[in-house]
Design a protein that fits this description.
Radius of gyration: 21 Å
Order of helices and strands: EHHHEHHHHHEEHEHEHEHEHHEHHHEHH
Structural class: alpha/beta
CATH superfamily: Metal-dependent hydrolases
Helix content: 40-55%
CATH class: Alpha Beta
CATH architecture: Alpha-Beta Barrel
Distance between the termini: 22 Å
Number of domains: 1
Oligomer: single chain
């Protein structure tokens, strides 16, 4: 069995048509490549898998029984590109480019460009995914959503059942991050946030976790740089990048974590700037010191290690290509430093290691591995790199309990640069075998196994630690 802390089986299917999606969550959606321009864009975006990576039929093939399904109303910063490419290509061709890269339909892209109605988008996506529950088209399998650990345990007793846990990527969903947000008074913004958070907490299936930040400024907290070439030449992440948490952001944090207005919704710190993360971690540390029996765990649902000793040292250099060109790990500050690993461990939190090779390793190293012709050698190289990220985090903690905080968060269908031999969730059983084989063959860093066997380490990463976390916090 595999548990995934972060994936998007809903994104391509929900955005497959307008005004109504034309695909269901079981469908394998192919990116549309039916013109000369689309084919050239497809060649340029060859690092992006041009088909669904985690539709539910793929989940069945990969034995992904449980997955945190992330709702994501598309940030308009993705759709309103910089002026230069628009001038060169024209609006129609820009739509084709975005259609190829995202896998969304042109109709859906055109409609989203007309407005910033993030909360309405969120409600529509939530309704879509709730209505997807039930039998697969062939009647052999079933999809359902659970609301707590007891429901999860019960659902796992049923054969051929694939279980979703609702999450959200980006607190812009509460209506911020739009030009109109700047026009609101503090009182108006505060009221809007309270109303929308309250509405989400009243859902039948409120989200388990929400990332406070994502790729673009949302008026709540600064974000870390996440895009490299060629994407960063098309979109502009500069506004709000690397800033701290705003007054409105603290309101969102407190209302999400509160149990006085409904279920607690945990904060996922992925994508937050280092400044924002440090402020939030201080807040959590103080809370947990005062409330040791009601801890707030810190979670990064899809992340990698950067190898820096401290959070401050990870931002001494700007996040540019040169910073990560020659390194083994990907050095940008969006990834987790040793200091941060210890903070997450001490909060009884989780880090979901992702399968985005662009975040797992340095730029020259990833190029070298990706160009390997020998597939067996390539698989060993990716297994080695993935484990290096895990061992970096465990070494930072320095004790056996370090293995308790490492889980799996693929980010499949999040427009990632997947590891070449493992393009979809269906390939994950092979990846698990490769990880075990690498450890057994090389006895790699055996002093950091802390008595676990290779099989036990892989089991902890791919499902056991997540289940233990759910038992404590998915209530």
């Amino acid at each position: 069995m595999i548990i995934d802390l972060h994936c998007h089986p809903n994104l391509k299917t929900f955005n497959s048509g307008f005004p109504e999606p034309v695909s269901n969550i079981w469908d394998a959606v192919q990116h549309k490549v039916d013109s000369k321009l689309a084919k050239s864009v497809s060649d340029l975006a060859a690092h992006i898998h041009m088909a669904s990576q985690c539709n539910l039929d793929a989940m069945v093939a990969g034995n992904m029984r449980v997955f945190q399904l992330s709702l994501y109303p598309t940030e308009r910063g993705f759709l309103h590109l910089r002026n230069v490419p628009t001038v060169l290509l024209g609006k129609r061709r820009i739509n084709i480019v975005q259609e190829v890269v995202t896998g969304y339909s042109a109709e859906s892209i055109i409609e989203q460009k007309k407005h910033y109605h993030y909360f309405e988008d969120l409600q529509a996506e939530y309704k879509y995914i709730v209505n997807q529950q039930g039998k697969s088209p062939d009647g052999k399998n079933e999809f359902l959503i659970v609301n707590n650990y007891a429901e999860l345990e019960k659902a796992l007793q049923k054969k051929n059942t694939y279980i979703g846990i609702i999450t959200i990527e980006g607190a812009h969903v509460f209506g911020t991050g739009a030009p109109e947000t700047d026009e609101l008074s503090k009182a108006e913004l505060s009221e809007q946030l309270t109303q929308k958070i309250s509405a989400v907490k009243k859902w039948k299936y409120p989200p388990f976790i929400i990332t406070l930040s994502h790729h673009f400024w949302n008026h709540l907290a600064g974000h870390a740089k996440s895009f490299k070439r060629p994407i960063n030449s098309l979109v502009n992440q500069n506004k709000g990048k690397n800033k701290g948490i705003t007054e409105a952001g603290w309101q969102v944090i407190r209302e999400l974590l509160s149990t006085n207005n409904g279920k607690r919704i945990l904060i996922d710190t992925k994508h937050m700037s280092v400044a924002s993360r440090k402020e939030y971690y201080d807040f959590v540390s103080n809370h947990n010191f005062i409330n040791p029996s009601h801890k707030i765990p810190i979670i990064q649902s899809h992340a990698c290690a950067n190898g820096y000793k401290t959070m401050d040292s990870s931002v001494k250099e700007a996040d540019l290509i040169l910073k990560a060109r020659k390194s083994r790990l990907f050095k940008w500050s969006i990834n987790v430093s040793d200091e941060e690993a210890r903070i997450i461990h001490d909060s009884e939190g989780l880090i979901g290691l992702m399968v985005d090779k662009g975040n797992l390793g340095g730029i020259d190293l990833i190029k070298e591995i990706s160009e390997m012709k020998d597939q067996v050698k390539q698989r060993k190289a990716f297994a080695h790199l993935f484990l290096d990220n895990a061992f970096q985090l465990v070494k930072a903690v320095g004790q056996k309990s370090g293995w308790n905080m490492i889980a799996f968060g693929s980010d499949f269908d999040g427009t990632i640069t997947h590891m070449d031999p493992y393009p979809t969730v269906a390939a994950l059983p092979l990846f698990q075998q490769d990880l075990i084989a690498f450890l057994e063959e090389k006895k790699y860093l055996q002093d950091l196994w802390f008595g676990y066997t290779p099989k036990e380490i892989v089991e902890k990463i791919f499902y056991k630690n997540a289940m233990d976390f759910y038992k404590k916090y998915f209530v």
